[in-house]
């Protein structure tokens, strides 16, 4: 039992307790959920304190047998890759709860309980070191989100929820198949052990096997990311989800996909990853440009932000498959950035929605006159989102594009188009929502930010500035981990090739 | 087999297969009834008929093999049939209360 | 072949006696109730109304059998038949005495016998179950009658009776199961035989007294259920006159109506016989022969003859002078028959059996004269909430005790 | 003798069974079914299954069918209506019936050629004692499970049929 | 050491104060904070310059590591050399003056504090741009000034045209930034660093192709920021912003960032002759092109805006022909006179109650003589009147152009003539004739006039006071000596004077002439008057297809049609199959029974066919 276990367990405990609280005490439920998530966040900060930079392997490890046969372990631990993502999850959950304070009146108990369950799943996904455990957490995340969209969503929530669910399930089933295949090869679900067996040549995959396994994992993650042709669930899910749902979905859940790519696809199947990188990168770039172009013509704010997520996550995938230090670091950093800035965008769109009860851009206009601070915060977030230097996204995008340029300059050229287009759609939306004449309707519905809303937004704005101005607080440990992954990928290919030859010889 | 031989044979008793054939006949009649009849209660009775037919073959087998197990199966079938009848009839009552019909063709949706 | 003949003879004998008994049972009932209510009862037709049953039969036979236009004729006619059929069928398996040895006889050069036959029509291994089975079938008659009459009173009566009979069958079965546990057989004769003997030389080993688990409660439960099964007061809801006019047989008349009555009385006799067999030791005497139980029957008949003689000599009504001495002679004859040594082993058990059955029938009539009718919900809750658990408990205790002893 | 009884009661059973299906009125069907059951009880007796025969009469004829009749009476179910249709039943019903019957008989004839014979008294293992013994030794678990099943059925029936509490 | 960070930090503090609590501050305090911070920065620049010998020995400062990942290691570096020093002086100096002017000009505006907060933020970013020690920090400033430009153009955010212009500015700039950032990526992959010192040291050894590519990409960046063909379109629209903004950002400082960057990257450009040629051509083309448009405009700010574009073209011409110092010189003098022109124009607009159309002005010399005087100075300077600041810098560029290619000189001269013509045209139209507007025009307050006077002095004598080529001597390679310099000078002076004279004739003496010429030229005039319809062309060629294409093809077509169609298609297929199977599940129990029976028959048949179970 260490701090990490506590971070995983706390939301689950909170979830269970929340279920026991009588429905009538809905204010207490809110307070309880907020308190519990804040507690989790504070505890998760001890992970940062206790994290030893430069130490080999994962830290805060707990490894106990969960199921005897087949042997499945509760094996959790963190490294530079997962640390920040866990912090991101625990950081955003209190904000999500605070954000839903007044918006959710109907079935508040289940709602806040689900948010805690979501946190549990997310932290678990990033901490799991057992493939099966990972899969379990992966699916655990699905459930609360499905209900968050399906119950508390907007008009077409059922369609969106089902679409979201089916899309994700379609991918994760393939992943499960791949995991089981790996189990048959390695005899264990333990990721560390599987990696070890790969590097020592105990598992020898044929080229076809490796490619197929890679694709199975990749598809699951690509759907979650979502990569270009698999993205259509995202706009629907975002538009229909309640604000906190969008926030968690965009900020953390999408990162599960990219995290999986870095965590599993690259180290386990480096050859296949490299072989398939070209078309994946092309898809990523298409996603960047395409997402931006489609975002440009959206009449709905959330949809716009959703498509912008497609575009931004294209950067992440691009960075991952450049196989350069800068690209990978940038990708991971961009995950965090996107979590903060897009989260903030959804948050602020949520504020607008709470006021005006519309997501259509056309029903706004002149908000800047009525609520200057809201518009300023929105502006900062917009600027972060379009990658203005000194705000967080720039650092990530710069690194990704730098990495892409190192790998193939053409990639960088086309990917950079996204930077232009992001300015187009974000500013265009900003103009239509915040500028212009203030209509009477908008005026009456547009009070300035409340204290609670400040409390939600300020941490995010603060993080944008911090991450944009002083990325050295975050990047080094990520960088360290990425260096390992790159190293593994490079080193193990020839070793594996040799092992494969040996395997063939032994077979003879 | 000529008639005299058959007669001779029948002195030993009735062939077990006759019982089984009877069982098959009853069962088929039950099936036919299920398909033909529209009254839910009658349909239900056809099920009982089928159960009885099967019981008969159980008993016949029990006799053939000189084992008591067949009887027990029959016994259990009866018990289950009794339970089923109780629940089934209660369902029929409820259905009738809600829809005022016993025509099975009109009871084809779960939602009312 | 001989078996067949003897059976046919027994069948004829039993049918005759039984049917007569049924007819006279009604006379007895009316008489007893009348006396309970300090009336005379039927006394016009024949001496002391003794020919009343005959008159009733003639009346019913000669009456027009009305077939109302709105009834389902087939079932309407089938119902009384079913009722009486099911009621009578049980009698065939009830043993009412020990075996009879018939000495060899010669008719026209052919010698028949000697034969030994039991005082019953058929011996069935599953006797008790058979009784239950048949009695459970009895409901069809009533239910069908109620339904086919196309009359709401009849229908309600039919519904009531079927629900009631299903409900009370359970405690009854459970009550029956307890003595079965101790007897270890399902054959009625075997059960009666298992109750032979005496504790301490004088306490009879009847099931109601039998160790390790005296079945007195089971007997009470059985009797209560029996009342319900036969639709007798206080459980005669199916035919409650003041609620349902006459219940299921409201539309019946003539012989069909008589059939229901016959069925009711036949059922009464059957359940009383079963009660006697299961609980009251069947034909086992109340006390040992060593203490002179064999002389009870002659003594009773003798006493009855003497009383008749006395009243004949001091007639209360003019014709007593002619009738009662005849009765006295019959009684004396019976007493002599009972005392006739070769017949003693045959007739004494028969007497005891009939005496017990008669006593139980008397109880039926007695209760009818005494208790009011139940309300329907009371009836049902009594069955399910009291009788059923009590029977179950009794069965459990019995089973436990029997297992403990063995 | 066996042949006689078998023929008689098989005939009755068949007639009654056909009657079950052909009678228009549920009550008629129900009574016919009682007839089938009674006949079967007799056949059981012929097969040496005394206990089951009695149970058949008590449980089926005495309880289950009474329940049916009770419900028919309660609902005052009349002659069935010819509304609604099932083209599939109309189309395939009779062929399926014939095919099923034929196949079943064929199977019976094929797998049970006239080797075994039923003679009354050949098998006496169907008494209460034997059944009871088997029930409480070999089949104890199913027996107990059945009791649970019945309990569930009772509760289910009560819940279903209970009047809505106002 | 010299606390270089203080220079940008001062305006930044001003920004924070005004930005966060400005709403609650009285105007005087806001003024004090805004103006004071910039003036302090100016003073600090002077102090640093004084201490460090005006940048003769470059100063470095590394504050913290900003981005580090593997080989990518970018620090927050500042670098001060002579070029930086000039820029710093221009930015903070002109900035201070314009801040002071703005306190008067913006007095009655709502969102006063906001304006100054933005302006201070602009100063912060501009100073960052100038001080940057590596390309990424330069890019920070580059983007930052773009942002402020966006905010200030859209200052009147209730006006749709203003916010649209802001968006246009930002997005067009982004296109330039696209080039610039690609240049950086290429630079990093080539040199392994973005540090000026390292890059310039390593540049000469690298292949010309890559350097050319880098240079071209940088040129793209510069055309965006400095409003050159093809990305000049945002600048005229940017006049939607308040006039001080036009003066500071869109005339004096920000738009010259491209020139600054090219000069800063002279090492790379010098090793990429093709790119140099391109720079010169772009500059020349822009100069002529914008000048022709300037001839026809009636909006006073638009005239000056096109003039700015044109003058920026001059600077690019200078840079392109290798006369970096001349370019920078023109940059500085242009900052003086163009700021003055704009501020003067602002004063005129102020006088005419916000009227910007020159046809509704006229005769202002009676009402605003001081304004007229300072504007005359500026107009002389831009026309290249001998002795004024514009004369020197323009002459230097033209001479260098002649040295590079004589035809460029001639085009430049013609442009100079046009420049003189349209500026003076504006002057005559504004101050001569009768007042044709509404209300009573009035002179501006001293808070506005004060800076104007200072700028007027600088416009007249700036060329003499600051001889930039001399100051920057040694930084850039020397140019070829050109024969007949005097004659060239004379030609350009003549062109300027001719322009002034022509405009006097047309707009003061013979006022019917312009209409006749207009009528004579007809379509051609309309074309020029409509700015060659470039905006419309861009709209039709890029913007509309992009938006409509995105909407119709990508969103409705690909996203909803193809992808969602495929996804939902799978769903519908499943539902369709289910629909067929549903027929079996009709809810009709008799059908079910029949199916069961059929199934049983099939099973039995299979059993029988398989020989049965033995």
Structural features, described:
The complex is a heteropentamer of chains A (508), B (112), C (406), D (166) and E (614). Chain A is mainly alpha-helical and 508 residues long. Chain A has one domain. Chain A has 20 helices and two strands. In chain A, strand 1 and strand 2 form a beta hairpin. Chain A is globular. Mean pLDDT of chain A is 86; it is low at 491-501. Chain B is mainly α and 112 residues long. Chain B has one domain: Helix Hairpins. Chain B contains four helices and one strand, in the order αβααα. In chain B, helix 2 (16-36) runs antiparallel to helix 3 (40-65) and helix 3 (40-65) packs antiparallel against helix 4. Chain C folds into two domains: 1-62, no CATH class; 65-274 and 375-405, no CATH class. By secondary structure, chain C is mainly α. The relative contact order of chain C is 0.13. Chain C is globular and about 60 Å long. Chain C starts with a helix and ends with a helix. With 166 residues, chain D is mainly α. Chain D has a single domain, classed as Up-down Bundle (Four Helix Bundle (Hemerythrin (Met), subunit A)), CATH 1.20.120. Chain D is built from six helices and one strand. Chain D has helices at 2-22, 26-46, 50-75, 87-111, 128-136, 140-161; one strand at 117-118. In chain D, helix 1 runs antiparallel to helix 2 (26-46) and helix 2 packs antiparallel against helix 3. The mean pLDDT of chain D is 81. Chains in contact: A-E, B-D, B-E, C-D, D-E. Chains B and D meet through strand 1, helix 2, helix 3 and helix 4 of B and helix 1, helix 2, helix 3, helix 4 and strand 1 of D.
């Amino acid at each position: 039992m260490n701090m990490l276990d506590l971070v995983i367990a706390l939301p689950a405990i909170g979830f269970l307790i929340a279920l026991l609280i009588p429905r009538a005490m809905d204010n207490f439920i809110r307070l309880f959920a907020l308190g519990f998530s804040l507690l989790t966040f504070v505890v998760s900060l001890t992970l940062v304190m206790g994290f030893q930079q430069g130490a080999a392997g994962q830290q805060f490890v707990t490894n106990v047998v969960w199921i005897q046969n087949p042997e499945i372990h509760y094996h959790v631990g963190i490294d530079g890759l997962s640390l920040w993502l866990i912090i991101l999850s625990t950081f955003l959950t209190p904000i999500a709860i605070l954000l839903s304070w007044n918006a959710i009146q109907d079935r508040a108990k289940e709602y806040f309980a689900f948010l805690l369950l979501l946190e549990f799943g997310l932290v678990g996904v990033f901490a799991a070191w057992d493939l099966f455990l990972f899969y379990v957490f992966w699916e655990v995340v699905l459930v609360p989100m499905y209900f968050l969209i399906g119950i508390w969503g907007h008009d077409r929530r059922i369609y969106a929820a089902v679409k979201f669910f089916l899309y994700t399930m379609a991918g994760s089933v393939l992943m499960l198949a791949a995991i089981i295949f790996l189990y048959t090869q390695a005899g264990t679900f333990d990721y560390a052990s599987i990696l070890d067996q790969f590097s020592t040549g105990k598992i020898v995959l044929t080229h076809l096997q490796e490619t197929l396994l890679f694709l199975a994992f990749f598809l699951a993650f690509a759907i979650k990311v979502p990569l270009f042709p698999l993205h259509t669930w995202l706009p629907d899910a975002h538009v229909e989800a309640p604000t906190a749902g969008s926030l968690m979905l965009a900020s953390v859940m999408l990162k599960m996909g990219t995290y999986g790519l870095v965590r599993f696809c690259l180290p386990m199947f480096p050859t296949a990853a490299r072989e398939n990188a070209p078309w994946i990168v092309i898809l990523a770039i298409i996603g960047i440009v395409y997402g931006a172009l489609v975002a440009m013509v959206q009449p709905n704010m959330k949809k716009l932000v959703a498509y912008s997520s497609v575009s931004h996550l294209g950067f992440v995938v691009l960075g991952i498959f450049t196989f350069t230090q800068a690209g990978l670091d940038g990708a991971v950093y961009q995950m965090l950035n996107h979590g903060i800035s897009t989260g903030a965008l959804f948050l602020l769109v949520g504020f607008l929605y709470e006021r005006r009860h519309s997501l259509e851009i056309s029903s706004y206009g002149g908000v800047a006159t009525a609520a200057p601070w809201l518009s300023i915060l929105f502006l900062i977030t917009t600027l972060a989102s379009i990658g203005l230097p000194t705000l967080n996204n720039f650092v990530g995008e710069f690194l990704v594009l730098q990495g892409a340029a190192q790998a193939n300059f053409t990639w960088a050229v086309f990917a950079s188009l996204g930077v232009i287009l992001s300015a187009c759609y974000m500013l265009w939306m900003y103009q239509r929502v915040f500028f212009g004449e203030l209509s009477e309707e908008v005026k009456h519905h547009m009070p300035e930010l409340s204290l609670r809303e400040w409390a939600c937004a300020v941490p995010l704005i603060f993080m944008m500035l911090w991450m944009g101005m002083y990325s050295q607080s975050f990047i080094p440990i990520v960088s360290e981990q990425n260096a390992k992954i790159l190293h593994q990928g490079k080193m193990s290919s020839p070793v594996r090739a040799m092992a494969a030859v040996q395997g063939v010889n032994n077979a003879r | 087999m000529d008639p005299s031989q058959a007669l001779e044979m029948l002195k030993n008793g009735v062939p077990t297969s006759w019982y089984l054939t009877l069982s098959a006949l009853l069962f088929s009649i039950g099936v036919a009834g299920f398909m033909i009849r529209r009254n839910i209660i009658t349909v239900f009775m056809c099920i009982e008929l089928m159960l009885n037919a099967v019981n008969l073959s159980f008993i016949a087998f029990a006799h053939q093999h000189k084992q008591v197990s067949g009887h027990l199966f029959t016994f259990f079938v009866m018990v289950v049939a009794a339970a089923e009848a109780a629940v089934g009839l209660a369902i029929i009552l409820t259905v009738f209360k809600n829809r005022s019909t016993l025509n099975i063709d009109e009871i084809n949706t779960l939602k009312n | 072949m001989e078996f067949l003949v003897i059976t046919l003879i027994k069948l004829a004998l039993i049918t005759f006696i039984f049917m007569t008994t049924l007819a006279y049972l009604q006379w007895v009932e009316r008489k007893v109730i009348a006396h309970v209510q300090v009336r005379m009862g039927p006394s016009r037709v024949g001496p002391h109304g003794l020919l009343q049953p005959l008159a009733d039969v003639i009346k019913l036979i000669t009456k027009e059998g009305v077939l109302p236009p709105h009834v389902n004729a087939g079932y309407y006619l089938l119902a009384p038949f079913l009722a009486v059929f099911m009621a009578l069928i049980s009698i065939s398996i009830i043993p009412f005495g020990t075996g009879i040895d018939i000495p060899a006889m010669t008719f026209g050069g052919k010698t028949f016998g000697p034969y030994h036959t039991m005082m019953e029509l058929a011996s069935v291994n599953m006797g008790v179950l058979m009784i239950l089975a048949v009695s459970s079938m009895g409901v069809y008659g009533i239910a069908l009658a109620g339904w086919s009459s196309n009359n709401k009173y009849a229908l309600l009566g039919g519904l009531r009776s079927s629900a009631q009979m299903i409900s009370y069958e359970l405690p009854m079965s459970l009550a029956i199961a307890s003595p079965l546990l101790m007897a270890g057989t399902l054959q009625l004769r075997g059960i009666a035989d298992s109750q032979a003997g005496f504790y301490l030389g004088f306490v009879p080993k009847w099931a109601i007294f039998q160790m390790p688990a005296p079945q007195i409660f089971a007997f009470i439960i059985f009797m209560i259920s029996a009342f319900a099964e036969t639709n007798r007061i206080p459980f005669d809801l199916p035919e409650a006159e003041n609620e349902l006019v006459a219940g299921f047989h409201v539309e019946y008349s003539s012989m069909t109506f008589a059939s229901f009555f016959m069925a009711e009385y036949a059922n009464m006799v059957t359940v009383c016989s079963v009660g006697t067999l299961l609980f009251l030791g069947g034909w086992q005497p109340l006390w040992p022969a060593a203490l002179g139980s064999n002389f009870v029957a002659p003594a009773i008949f003798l006493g009855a003859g003497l009383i008749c003689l006395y009243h004949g000599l001091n007639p209360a009504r003019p014709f007593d002078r002619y009738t009662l001495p005849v009765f006295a002679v019959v009684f004396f004859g019976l007493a002599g028959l009972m005392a006739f040594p070769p017949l003693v082993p045959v007739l004494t058990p028969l007497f005891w059996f009939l005496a017990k059955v008669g006593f139980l029938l008397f109880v039926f009539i007695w209760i009818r004269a005494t208790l009011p009718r139940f309300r329907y919900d009371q009836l049902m809750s009594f069955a399910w909430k009291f009788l059923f658990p009590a029977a179950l408990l009794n069965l459990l205790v019995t089973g436990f005790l029997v297992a403990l002893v063995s | 003798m066996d042949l006689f009884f078998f023929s008689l009661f098989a005939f009755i059973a068949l007639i009654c069974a056909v009657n079950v299906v052909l009678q228009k009125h549920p009550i008629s069907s129900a009574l016919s079914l009682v007839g089938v059951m009674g006949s079967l009880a007799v056949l059981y007796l012929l097969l040496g299954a005394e206990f089951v025969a009695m149970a058949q009469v008590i449980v089926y004829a005495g309880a289950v069918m009474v329940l049916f009749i009770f419900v028919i009476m309660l609902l005052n179910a009349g002659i069935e209506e010819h509304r609604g249709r099932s083209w599939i039943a109309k189309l395939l019903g009779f062929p399926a019936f014939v095919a099923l019957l034929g196949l079943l008989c064929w199977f019976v004839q094929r797998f049970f050629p006239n080797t075994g014979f039923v003679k009354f008294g050949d098998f006496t293992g169907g008494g209460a004692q034997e059944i009871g013994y088997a029930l409480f030794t070999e089949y104890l678990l199913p027996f107990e499970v059945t009791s649970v099943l019945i309990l569930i059925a009772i509760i289910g029936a009560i819940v279903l049929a209970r009047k809505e509490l106002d | 050491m010299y606390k270089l960070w203080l220079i940008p930090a001062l305006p930044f503090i001003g920004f924070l104060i005004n930005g966060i609590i400005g709403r609650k501050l009285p105007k005087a305090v806001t003024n004090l904070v805004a103006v004071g911070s910039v003036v302090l920065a100016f003073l600090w620049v002077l102090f640093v310059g004084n201490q460090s010998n005006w940048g003769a020995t470059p100063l470095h400062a590394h504050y913290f590591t900003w981005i580090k990942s593997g080989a990518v290691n970018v620090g927050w570096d500042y670098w001060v050399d002579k070029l930086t020093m000039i820029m710093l002086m221009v930015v903070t100096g002109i900035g201070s003056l314009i801040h002071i002017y703005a306190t008067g000009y913006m007095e009655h505006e709502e969102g006063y504090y906001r304006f100054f907060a933005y302006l201070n933020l602009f100063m912060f970013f501009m100073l960052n741009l100038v001080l940057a020690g590596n390309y990424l920090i330069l890019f920070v400033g580059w983007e930052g000034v773009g942002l402020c430009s966006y905010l200030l153009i859209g200052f009147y955010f209730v006006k749709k045209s203003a916010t649209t212009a802001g968006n246009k500015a930002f997005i067009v700039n982004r296109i330039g930034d696209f080039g610039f950032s690609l240049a950086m990526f290429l630079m990093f992959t080539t040199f392994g660093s973005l540090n000026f010192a390292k890059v310039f040291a390593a540049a000469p050894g690298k292949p010309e192709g890559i350097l050319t590519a880098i240079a071209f990409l940088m040129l793209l960046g510069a055309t965006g920021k400095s409003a050159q063909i093809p990305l000049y379109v945002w600048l005229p629209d940017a006049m939607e912003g308040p006039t001080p903004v036009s003066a500071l950002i869109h005339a004096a400082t920000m738009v010259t960032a491209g020139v600054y960057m090219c000069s800063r990257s002279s090492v790379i450009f010098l090793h990429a002759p093709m790119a140099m040629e391109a720079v010169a051509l772009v500059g020349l083309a822009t100069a002529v092109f914008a000048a022709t448009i300037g001839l026809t405009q009636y909006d006073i700010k638009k005239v000056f805006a096109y003039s700015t574009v044109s003058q920026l073209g001059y600077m690019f011409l200078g840079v392109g022909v290798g006369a970096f110092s001349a370019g920078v010189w023109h940059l500085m003098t242009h900052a003086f006179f163009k700021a003055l022109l704009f501020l003067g124009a602002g004063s005129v607009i102020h006088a005419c109650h916000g009227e910007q159309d020159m046809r509704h002005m006229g005769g202002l010399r009676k009402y605003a003589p001081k304004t007229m005087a300072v504007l005359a100075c500026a107009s002389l300077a831009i026309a290249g009147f001998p002795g004024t600041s514009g004369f020197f810098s323009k002459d230097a560029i033209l001479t260098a152009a002649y040295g590079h290619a004589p035809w460029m000189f001639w085009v430049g001269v013609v442009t100079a003539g046009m420049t003189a013509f349209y500026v003076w045209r504006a002057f005559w139209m504004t101050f001569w004739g009768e007042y044709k507007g509404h209300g009573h025009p009035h002179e501006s307050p001293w808070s506005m006039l004060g800076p104007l006077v200072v700028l007027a002095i600088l416009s007249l004598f700036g060329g003499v006071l600051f001889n930039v080529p001399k100051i920057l001597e040694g930084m850039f390679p020397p140019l070829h000596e050109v024969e007949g310099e005097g004659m060239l000078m004379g030609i350009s002076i003549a062109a300027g004077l001719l322009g002034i004279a022509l405009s006097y004739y047309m707009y003061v003496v013979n006022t019917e002439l312009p209409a006749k010429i207009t009528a004579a030229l007809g379509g051609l005039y309309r074309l020029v008057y409509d700015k060659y319809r470039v905006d419309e062309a861009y709209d039709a060629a890029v913007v509309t297809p992009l938006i409509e294409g995105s909407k119709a093809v990508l969103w409705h077509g690909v996203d909803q049609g193809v992808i969602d169609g495929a996804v939902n298609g799978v769903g519908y297929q499943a539902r369709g199959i289910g629909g067929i199977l549903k027929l079996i599940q009709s809810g009709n129990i008799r059908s079910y029974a029949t199916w069961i029976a059929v199934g049983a028959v099939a099973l039995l048949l299979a059993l029988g066919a398989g020989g049965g179970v033995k």
